[in-house]
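Fill in residues.
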C-alpha cells in the first residue's frame, strides 16, 4: 500500500526520513507572478518480500493549474564534510538547530531532476524519495482557490493513492525584483566539463543556457570574464583561458577587439540580465599581481601577464590604462555604464590597504564615475574612500551599518556558519531562505556569492564532478561552490538550494508590496512578533516559522486589497 503526504518545499527529506517527521501542507498560496512549490513524499508498506525493490509509479497532477506545474524528483548527492571538522565543539553547542541531519557525512537531497521512466517516480521500500512540484507562469489565470490533486498509479497503471491541496492565487502581482543579485559565473568550468573550446559557438550556447537559469532564479548580475578570472587560482597556476577581450601588441602598441564582449553582452541582454560585473583587474589575496592575460604579440599568441607580473609595475599599468580607456568607451557607446560594476580585487584585508591604494591610484581616474564593487570585511576601505560600494560579509555587516553607503550589499561564502544564513547542504532550507527577511529589515539592496557553477577543486588545480564531490574536492562545506549542476546536452540542473534563495528574494518583494500599504516599520514589527529581533546572526530554522511570516504578510496584503 502506498501512502502519500504533501509537505513544505522548505523541508529536506533524507532517505531514512519518515512521513511522520513532517507536517502535512494542505494549502499553497502564490501571487500571480510568483513561482511557488510543494513537495510530495511517499511510503510503501506491506509484505516486503512481495514488493519490488524498485517500483516506478506514474504520477498525475489534476486540477486547473496542472498545466502550469513542473514535476521533478529530488535526488541525492554526497556530503563528505561534517560540521565537526570545521568548527569547535563549543561553537557547535551554541548553534541554534540550523544543521540538518546533525551535519553528518552522507547523502543529502539537492538535485532537481526531470522525471524519467515515461513520467514516473520511484517509490522504494524503507526509503523516502521526494517529488518537487512547482508552479509558474500563471499570471493570466483568474485569482482564486483551486483544488489540486496528486495521484499515483502502480506499474500496471492501477490507482494506488492520492493527496490534495488548495492552491490559491492571490489577486495581486509582486513588484519587480529590485535586489541586485550575483553568483559568480565561471565560463571556464563549463568549457572544462563539457569539453568544448572556450567561446566557441557551442560554448556560448551552453553559457546562455546557464545564464537563463540564473536569471529565472533572480540572479540578475552576470560576471563578465574580460580576462580569465583571477579567482581561486593557486599562486603560479592558471585556470583554463576564458578571455573575452582579444589583445594585440604590435611594435609596442596595444589594440583591442571587443567583438566577443559584444557577443557576451548581447547574450546577457537576451537572457534578461540587468547588470554586468567586469572580472577582477588584479589577483585575489592582496591584489599584488595581474590576472592571466593572453595576447598576440607581433604575430605570436602568448601569455603576457600573470602571477609573475607586479600589479603596480609600469608594464601592466600601461596595458591596463590602455585597455580601460577603450573598454569603458565601448561600454558607454552601448549604453551600459549605469548597469556595470568593476572589481579591483576579491576580499582584500586590512593588511592589503596600501597595495589596494596603489592600484586605485594607477587606474582610478579612468574609472571615475564607474561603480567599483568589492567583497571585503573591513570598513576602513570605505572610510578611506577606497571603495564606494563595499560588500561586507554578513558576520561583519554591523560595522558598516552606521556608514552612509549609497548601495548596501552583503555576501556570505564559506562562512559564517554558526547562527547565520548560508546555503550549505547541511543548512536547513528556511535558514537559506531567511536571508531575504534579513536583507529587507536592514535595507540591503544587493547580495553576492562567489559560486554559481564552480566545478573545480581548491586553487583550480583540477576539474571535479559536482555530482560526486560537492565540497570542491574536500575544500570546505558541501554546496558552497555551486547551486546549479551541469546536466545533459549543456543544460543546467537546478538545486533546491537555488530555489530556496529565490523564495527569499520573492519574500523581499512580498514585504515591499506589504510596505506600500502599511509602511516598513509596521511590516518589520509584524514579522518580529513571529520571530523577534531579526539580525544577520539569528536565523529562522524551521519551515513552520518561515511559513507563519509569509502567511502574515499575505494576510495583510489580502486585507489591504479587499479594502
Amino acid at each position: 500500500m502506498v501512502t502519500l503526504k504533501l509537505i513544505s518545499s522548505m523541508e529536506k527529506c533524507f532517505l531514512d526520513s519518515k512521513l511522520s517527521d513532517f507536517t502535512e501542507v494542505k494549502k499553497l498560496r502564490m501571487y500571480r507572478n510568483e513561482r511557488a512549490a510543494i513537495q510530495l513524499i511517499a511510503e510503501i508498506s506491506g509484505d516486503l518480500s512481495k514488493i519490488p525493490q524498485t517500483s516506478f509509479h506514474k504520477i498525475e497532477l489534476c486540477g486547473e493549474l496542472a498545466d502550469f506545474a513542473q514535476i521533478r524528483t529530488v535526488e541525492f548527492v554526497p556530503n563528505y564534510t561534517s560540521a565537526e571538522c570545521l568548527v569547535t565543539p563549543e561553537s557547535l553547542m551554541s548553534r541554534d538547530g540550523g544543521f540538518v541531519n546533525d551535519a553528518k557525512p552522507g547523502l543529502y537531497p539537492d538535485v532537481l531532476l526531470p522525471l524519467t521512466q515515461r513520467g514516473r517516480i520511484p517509490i522504494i521500500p524503507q526509503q523516502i524519495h521526494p517529488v518537487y512540484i512547482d508552479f509558474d507562469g500563471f499570471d493570466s489565470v483568474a485569482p482564486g482557490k483551486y483544488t489540486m490533486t496528486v495521484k499515483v498509479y502502480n506499474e500496471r497503471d492501477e490507482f494506488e493513492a492520492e493527496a490534495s491541496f488548495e492552491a490559491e492565487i492571490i489577486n495581486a502581482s509582486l513588484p519587480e525584483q529590485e535586489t541586485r543579485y550575483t553568483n559568480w559565473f565561471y565560463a571556464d568550468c563549463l568549457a572544462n566539463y563539457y569539453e568544448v573550446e572556450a567561446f566557441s559557438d557551442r560554448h556560448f550556447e551552453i553559457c546562455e543556457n546557464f545564464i537563463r537559469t540564473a536569471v529565472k532564479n533572480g540572479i540578475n548580475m552576470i560576471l563578465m570574464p574580460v580576462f580569465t578570472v583571477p579567482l581561486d587560482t593557486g599562486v603560479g597556476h592558471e585556470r583554463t583561458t576564458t578571455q573575452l577581450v582579444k589583445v594585440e601588441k604590435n611594435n609596442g602598441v596595444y589594440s583591442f577587439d571587443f567583438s566577443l564582449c559584444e557577443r557576451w553582452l548581447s547574450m546577457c541582454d537576451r537572457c534578461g540580465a540587468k547588470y554586468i560585473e567586469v572580472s577582477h583587474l588584479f589577483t585575489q589575496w592582496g591584489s599584488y599581481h595581474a590576472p592571466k592575460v593572453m595576447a598576440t604579440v607581433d604575430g605570436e599568441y602568448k601569455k603576457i601577464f600573470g602571477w609573475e607580473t607586479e600589479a603596480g609595475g609600469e608594464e601592466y599599468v600601461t596595458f591596463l590604462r590602455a585597455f580601460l580607456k577603450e573598454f569603458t568607451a565601448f561600454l558607454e557607446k552601448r549604453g551600459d555604464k549605469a548597469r556595470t560594476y568593476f572589481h579591483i580585487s576579491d576580499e582584500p584585508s586590512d593588511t592589503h590597504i596600501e597595495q589596494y591604494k596603489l592600484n586605485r591610484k594607477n587606474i582610478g581616474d579612468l574609472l571615475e564615475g564607474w561603480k567599483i564593487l568589492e567583497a571585503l570585511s573591513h570598513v576602513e576601505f570605505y572610510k578611506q574612500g577606497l571603495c564606494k560600494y563595499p560588500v561586507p560579509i554578513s558576520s561583519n555587516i554591523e560595522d558598516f551599518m552606521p556608514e552612509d553607503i549609497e548601495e548596501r550589499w552583503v555576501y556570505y561564502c564559506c562562512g559564517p556558519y554558526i547562527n547565520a544564513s548560508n546555503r550549505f547542504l547541511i543548512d536547513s532550507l528556511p535558514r537559506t531562505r531567511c536571508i531575504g527577511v534579513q536583507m529587507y529589515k536592514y535595507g540591503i539592496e544587493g547580495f553576492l556569492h562567489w559560486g554559481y557553477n564552480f566545478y573545480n577543486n581548491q586553487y583550480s588545480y583540477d576539474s571535479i564532478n559536482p555530482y560526486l564531490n560537492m565540497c570542491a574536492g574536500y575544500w570546505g562545506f558541501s554546496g558552497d561552490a555551486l547551486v546549479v549542476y551541469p546536466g545533459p546536452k549543456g543544460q543546467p540542473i537546478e538545486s533546491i538550494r537555488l530555489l530556496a534563495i529565490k523564495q527569499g528574494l520573492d519574500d523581499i518583494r512580498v514585504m515591499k508590496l506589504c510596505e506600500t500599504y502599511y509602511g516598513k516599520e509596521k511590516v518589520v514589527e509584524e514579522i518580529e512578533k513571529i520571530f523577534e529581533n531579526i539580525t544577520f546572526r539569528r536565523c529562522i530554522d524551521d519551515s513552520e516559522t518561515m511559513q507563519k511570516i509569509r502567511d502574515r504578510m499575505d494576510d495583510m496584503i489580502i486585507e489591504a486589497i479587499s479594502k
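Residues 496-518 form the longest helix (23 residues).
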